């Protein structure tokens, strides 16, 4: 298992923080799990498709140390966050949603719309040291009812001390929502150890599962407090009861599901999740950190990313234009944010890729 299992472009690919490369077996899996049941036995297509979605949820449980029934498919993190904010009551005296200006903008947009449900939004300034627990403590005030914690920030790769922050939230009875979009598949995660209230993630980045296979994990101890408003027949305890006058929330996290679901994204993502579960996220993590540490040390003060980080290195040199041009000439695929150039080696990258990036450093 490793590099040869992926469809590699001709360029040196460093964009796993955006889109992970497809497995060579992805097309075969798509045909088997989605197209084949439709072609060969269309009458039984839905039972087969729903089985594939159950497989997706089960695979997530194996990967993240969670129970299958606590996962609910979502089209993306924003949709899941919106459903949470509608489902959790906002107490009149504790109706502040706490976010950071470093959070992904889509999540901020969702939070600002939650004013219609009684919530108000407060932002931590982008100048705050987000790894400083004492600074967090001063911000987790008595009027905060819910906090969004981004495990790894996309513009810096800064990684939060998530276990400690979740403990603070529990002590102060603050709902916690953890965004793991930039960490799942590269940073080891243990949901049982975390004990967050909600976790939101996707499979398009480090899990190499393609777009559309988002998900929500709901702490079973908080499930009874949740009354989702954006529901559908798959949110029902018995979707095939077909009694128009009787809606009952599903007893599991599936109460957050909704109407007729998509199938293809989950059938495809199940395959990639199982691949990384068998390969080992810890092994991915060690490989990534070995490579990114070389990038960080060689860049010195030009490295924006702290030592306690996710899988990406963000670089901003004084001669940034020269660096960007050199990367392009070296046929290295990367992207940029206002913070700098983002470089994300995965298990399909090797030492030669790192050497090629370092060779592009100005004055290297």
From TrEMBL:
InterPro entries: Aminotrans_V_dom, PyrdxlP-dep_Trfase, PyrdxlP-dep_Trfase_major, PyrdxlP-dep_Trfase_small. Keywords: Lyase, Pyridoxal phosphate. It holds the Pfam family Aminotran_5. The keyword Lyase applies. One of its GO terms (molecular function) is lyase activity. Residues 55-298 form the Aminotransferase class V domain. It comes from the Bacteria. It comes from Pseudoteredinibacter isoporae. This is Selenocysteine lyase/cysteine desulfurase.
């Amino acid at each position: 298992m490793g590099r040869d299992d992926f469809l590699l472009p001709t360029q040196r690919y460093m964009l796993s923080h955006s889109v992970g490369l497809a497995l060579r077996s992805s097309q075969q899996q798509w045909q088997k799990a989605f197209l084949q049941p439709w072609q060969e036995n269309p009458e039984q297509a839905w039972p087969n498709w729903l089985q594939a979605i159950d497989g997706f949820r089960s695979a997530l449980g194996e990967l993240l140390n969670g129970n299958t029934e606590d996962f609910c498919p979502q089209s993306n993190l924003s949709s899941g966050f919106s459903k949470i904010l509608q489902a959790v009551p906002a107490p009149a005296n504790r109706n502040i949603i706490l976010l950071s200006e470093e959070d992904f903008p889509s999540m901020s947009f969702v939070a600002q719309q939650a004013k219609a449900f009684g919530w108000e939004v407060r932002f931590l300034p982008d100048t705050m040291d987000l790894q400083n627990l004492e600074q967090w403590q001063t911000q987790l005030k008595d009027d905060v009812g819910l906090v969004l914690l981004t495990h790894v920030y996309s513009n810096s790769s800064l990684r939060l001390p998530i276990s400690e922050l979740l403990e603070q939230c529990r002590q102060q009875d603050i709902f916690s929502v953890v965004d793991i979009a930039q960490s799942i598949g590269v940073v080891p995660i243990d949901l049982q150890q975390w004990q967050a209230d909600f976790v939101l993630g996707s499979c398009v980045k480090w899990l190499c599962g393609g777009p559309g296979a988002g998900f929500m994990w709901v702490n079973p101890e908080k499930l009874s407090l949740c009354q989702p408003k954006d529901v559908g027949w798959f949110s029902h305890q018995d979707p095939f009861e077909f009694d128009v006058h009787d809606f009952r929330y599903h007893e599991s996290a599936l109460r957050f599901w909704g109407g007729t679901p998509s199938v293809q994204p989950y059938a495809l993502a199940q395959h990639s999740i199982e691949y990384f579960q068998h390969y080992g996220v810890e092994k991915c993590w060690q490989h990534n950190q070995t490579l990114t540490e070389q990038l960080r040390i060689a860049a010195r003060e030009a490295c924006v990313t702290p030592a306690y980080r996710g899988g990406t290195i963000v670089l901003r040199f004084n001669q940034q234009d020269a660096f960007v041009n050199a990367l392009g000439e070296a046929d290295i695929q990367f992207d940029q944010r206002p913070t700098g150039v983002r470089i994300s080696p995965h298990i399909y990258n090797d030492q030669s890729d790192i050497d090629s990036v370092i060779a592009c450093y100005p004055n290297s």
